[in-house]
Amino acid sequence: MSAAPTGFWEPASAAGIPHFGLGTYGRTGADGLAALRFALDIGYRHLDTAQTYGTEANVGRAVRESGLPRKDVFITTKIADNNLGGGRVTATLRESLKTIGVEQVDLTLIHWPSYRDEAPMASYLTELLQAKRAGLTRLIGVSNFTVALLARAADLIGAQEIATNQVEVHPYLQNRTLRAFSDGLGVVTTAYMPLARGAVASDPVFIRIAERHGCTAAAVSLGWLVSKGMVVIPASGKREHLRSNLGAAPVKLTLEESAQIDALDRGRRMIDPPKKAPDWDR
Predict the structure, then answer these.
(1) Domain 17-194 carries which CATH code?
(2) Is 53 a catalytic residue?
(3) Distance between CA atoms of 11 and 17, rounded to whole angstroms?
(4) How many whole angstroms separate alpha carbon 35 and alpha carbon 52?
(5) Which one of 53, 124, 172, 192 is the catalytic residue?
(6) Would you tell me the crossing angle of helices 147-157 and 121-133 to the nearest 10 degrees?
(7) Residue 169: which residues within 8 A CB-CB, separation 6 or more?
(8) pTM, whole model, 2 decimals?
(9) Which residues contact 261 (CB under 8 A, 6 or more apart)?
(10) Could you give the CA distance from residue 122 to residue 126 in angstroms, rounded to a whole number?
(11) pLDDT tens string 135-179
C-alpha cells in the first residue's frame, strides 16, 4: 500500500475535509469496486459518493477490503433532491449508512437545493443539522448552492455549520463571485468537475505548464485549484489517471503560471440539469 503524498491530505481549513479526494460517480459494479480499491491502495483517503450515484455500497466495501482503519478514510455522501421533503432526510441518511456499512459518515451534503423550494429549505437543513447532532454524520454541508441560496442557508442554521459548498469549478468556470462569498462565510468550496471533462488535457496552456513541472495537465489543474484553498474530487476509473492525478501533490505553480490559468475563465458550465439547477450566479 502506498503512502499518501506528504501534506496533500491536510484538511482544508478547520472544516477537516482533506483537500484531495476521489469522485465516485460511475464507479459501479466489479470494475468500479476494483478502481476504488486501487485508489485506496495508492494513497487516496477521501471518497465522495451520493445516493444517486449507486456507488455507496462499493465505497463501503472498498474501505473494508482495504484494511485501512475507518478513521483514516473520509467518506462523503449526498442526500438526493427527491429525499428533501416529508421528513425523509434523516431516514434516507440512515439508509445510506446501512448501504455503506458504517455508523457515521464524515460529511453529508444536500446534493441539489429543492427546485423552486418545493421542499422548504428550513425544513431539510434543520433535519440535516439534527442528523449531525444525532451522530449520523460528523459534518454537514450543501452542493450546487448559489450565493443567494448559501446566504439563506447560513441564516437558517449558521454559516459555522456549513462545512462546504460543492459546486462546479474548473479553469473555464471559476465561479469567483460564489467562491469569494463562501470564503467570507468561512465555507470551504469543493470543486467537482475539476478537469472540465478532460478539456484541460488538450489545452496548450496546461500542456506547457505540465511540461515544465514534469506532470500531467490534469495534475496542473488540480494543483491550481488546491492552491486556491479548494477541495478537489476528480473522478476516474483508469489506473493511470488515478495515479497521475496524485502528481498534483508536489505541483507548485509560479505566479505567472497561476495567472495564465486564471485568464482561462469563460463561464463555461458543464452541469446544468433541467428541473434541478438553480438560477446560477453570473
Answers:
(1) 3.20.20.100
(2) yes
(3) 5
(4) 19
(5) 53
(6) 50
(7) 175, 179, 189, 191, 192, 193, 194, 225, 230
(8) 0.95
(9) 171, 205, 206, 209, 220, 221, 224, 253
(10) 6
(11) 999 999 999 999 999 999 999 999 999 999 999 999 999 999 999
